[in-house]
């Protein structure tokens, strides 16, 4: 394992401190327990809080700021944060209109946020993101994972919250965006959890992992390496199979890098995916390409498609000012 | 339940967990995200550091503080589940001293029940519950017939081991391994294995205290 | 070599097309010869044009747009573009006030831009960036390389050009920013040039390359892997040795990833570098952390420090709207 | 200089470059950025595709078109330098037919001089000039004494080889290898080697044409 670190035990604190220092115009860091808030507390809005294991940067701390999150709780690497963090973050940012948690659907995150929600003295609700179509959905199982589509949910809900909308409306829009969003990912290499010091899975030069999440967990299947168009075709097929969009639907296309895949390749994937979606009669009216939801140092990428409507498009386009997403302000 | 025993168990479990580093790490690497050992180690280290603070307290408070502390240190899926276990034990202990084996068994069963609620899971889903549920069953049926303590501990150890091993052939429906579908088959669940190690360690300790 | 590609020969065109499609609100792509321009031609300003080998994305195409570049010429991977590209780009964006080329100091780039400048029918000037302090400067040699500091030069000069400043003023400010900017980089892995199909250099788990550029060329020396603070101390020492800032100087700190190093590590480096600069009595008033000048799929990072003054700070802060840098608009 | 010979040289040089793939690639990987072979290959392929278009043209136009085409296809450091060579050859040819070996030698010297100007470089800086300058010198001194063509070609080949080899022990002061300082020592310059291969190929071809 070769990484820019001092001691494995200090990675998180040092990295969070660096983030806080580099973006001190946008965020503040609380150290015990760990959570980030906006530098200026927002008033008269639902407090939007997310969080999850670290290692997915810029998710979630990079999305704190005007038009998106009020606070984020970073856990240890790939480990859900704990209820005390969420409670303290909620205490810090609650502005009288309730708290909305945006939680990626993993057993650990769900349970920790659930316990926080049970203890929280404020009105609250939770949007569970579950956009990963690599996993079959079912009410009897843990169900689908939340992956890169979470960024879209956070942006859109964050925008609505900024208008003063109430908790129920924010929750409803979050659920709607999640239900109209589908993602699937592919890994070319494993990632290395710093404390473990070795790659989570072994994979050779001729193979890829299809249907991976964002934790270095193995995907649905190991396959022979193929060319980009063939890989994209499989990912897009699974996404469209899930979304079943009608001809002429307007979509947002996100090509998300897992961290170690260069922009040159991500744009090549965009080119391939966009052509395919257009061939299916879809209109790509919004795009995002880059490392928005990562998996430590993994090489790979995911494709996310969101079916837009006027409401979602409007809230996607609205001003946002965070470390990782910024426009119109 | 005595505070002294709980403190001794903390030390013993910490040793046992540290000794299983390679195995636990690789189990969670295979069908999870590789952090289960690290999560447990962090929890154990925190409890170890709390021993002095816990020593003068009554068992109910000790269990409650352990639960709260683990809730804020372990994180992940195992954190809230293990914490829930201790918080339920604390609640039962608070309601009335747990001292006989039968009482401990009842408290254990209630705490496992609380894990099931929290995780919305049951036996056969390839989780720590596949170790814990058979243990709870064995524990209560043997204490119900007033079996010898050593007999109870041996039976618990066996049930834990069988339960843990049974996860190997399962498809997971809860936890991270559920994302793997059939690829999870052939791998023991890390939480089932760590629970079994912990139960084995505590029952061994109980046997020693019994003998002494 | 495992990359998301179809045919090695098509990577560039496919990736450029993906970039153009994903950012069609900002840029237009011309295919023969290859160059990007702003979607809307700007009037009444010096035309700012950059370019260089591909593989450094988002440099330079990601910096086209309001407040920065008017056009960029992408060469093949790590290969300078050719004069016909620059001539065609200049033809497309020249708005009567002359053309300023911003060129990273490499023999190939310098000669190709020089030949274009000689053939260009418009008034023109060139700013050569040479911020890499790993290389000793000398008028008898090729001299220092231009690396990540180029982004800062492009941002600041782009802002001045937007005010209608004349060619001489833009050239002077570019030279000034360059002279107040110093960078140095370190690589943990090599990169793989797609057409070559194998890593440019071999390096093992216990080593790093100190003083690397952005082309996978070997650095100044091979060293044993060390902790982040020790690596940062060496980079910062070389930078300060060059800039010789006075106590209390105000600086911009850029932690630039070479592509495969995750944000978590880049922020950890930021934390380390910021502390060191502060200990040297410097005031970090502006920051940038991310993959802004990359080297294909290399793991590694560089540190860049620019000595600010009122003029540079003002032009750094001014509105910019490009694919990779956007604020205040 | 005859168009026919130039076209034959294009084919021969293309073959020679393709045959040196591994070597050229690894030389530029060691002290450059690994693309020198790819750049040359791209240039050769483009010229190959132009042969039909070039065939009916007078040599001056052929050389000029080659220069312009290489300028827009090779890129990098070698692109403008090689292009400058051809554009200068074209200029000299245009000014007055180059046909005798002495005339070719003068044109060659002028073209190498143009490379020196364009690259602001000279002998001893670990570049292609360490092959080209000794070749120009040998070429002109032997044609000045009216040496036999084969003798001239053999001497050129030797000078090219020696020049190319001499780059091995140099520190570079121009081009990418200059960034390496002392680490460049022990490696032959890729441009020096490719120039030597090309010169060797063309002189071999000239010897055959001579013999025929
Ligand atoms: N819903 C659940 N109910 C019971 N146990 C669960 C549940 N989800 C996960 N687990 C247990 O948690 C273990 C994983 O713990 P850990 O690795 O610490 O957390 P995470 O999965 O969040 O990384 C699994 O091996 C499994 O035994
Ligand atoms: N200033 C210069 N003068 C002469 N030759 C040069 C100069 N700079 C570089 N070269 C030659 O160019 C070669 C490299 O060419 P190439 O790899 O195609 O371009 P780049 O260095 O831009 O990647 C070097 O090996 C050297 O021989
Ligand atoms: Mg985890
Ligand atoms: Mg785990
Ligand atoms: Mg090159
Ligand atoms: Mg080269």
Automatic annotation (TrEMBL), chains A, C:
It holds the Pfam family Dak1. The keyword Transferase applies. Residues 7-327 form the DhaK domain. The keyword Ribonucleoprotein does not apply. InterPro entries: DhaK_1 (IPR012736), DhaK_dom (IPR004006), Dihydroxyacetone_Kinase (IPR050861). It comes from the Bacteria. Its EC number is 2.7.1.121. It is an enzyme of class 2 (transferase). Keywords: Kinase, Transferase. One of its GO terms (molecular function) is phosphoenolpyruvate-glycerone phosphotransferase activity. This is Dihydroxyacetone kinase subunit DhaK. It comes from Methylobacillus methanolivorans.
UniProtKB/TrEMBL annotation, chains B, D:
Its EC number is 2.7.1.121. The keyword Cell inner membrane does not apply. Keywords: Kinase, Transferase. Residues 4-204 form the DhaL domain. The keyword Metal-binding does not apply. Transmembrane segments: none annotated. It comes from the Bacteria. GO terms for molecular function: phosphoenolpyruvate-glycerone phosphotransferase activity. This is Dihydroxyacetone kinase subunit DhaL. The lineage of its organism: Bacteria, Pseudomonadati, Pseudomonadota, Betaproteobacteria, Nitrosomonadales. The gene is dhaL.
